[in-house]
Design goal:
127 residues, 2 domains, mainly alpha, 90% helix
Amino acid sequence: MEIFKVAGIGVLAVILSGVLKKDNPEFVPIVTIAGGAIVLVMIISSMSGAIAAFDALVEKTGVDQKLFGGVLKIIGIGYVTEYASAICEDQGSRSTANKIQLAGKISIFLMALPIVNALVDSITRLL
């Protein structure tokens, strides 16, 4: 199962960071980011099936393809924001993490506006 590989890499990165923290603390951020990047690549490669299923669902419903792209971008913004924020928190910079989260929320809000607009248009047409 893929989750065991992902969990193993994550735990290995944490253990390696703990070992390096005492003697070579300057390498801890590198190990943390590298471990996280490997996990992200593994997750993204397994997401292709889910995206294809979501695309098939969009085709069945006749929803505009641009809205589908917007939803995927919103999901991506959420994941990237969470990942970057967690790295900042791991390195002791809660303030920077909060600013990244705020930027992600604003980006999601802006990306959601066309989707909300299309929803309102659809409801208006039905009435």
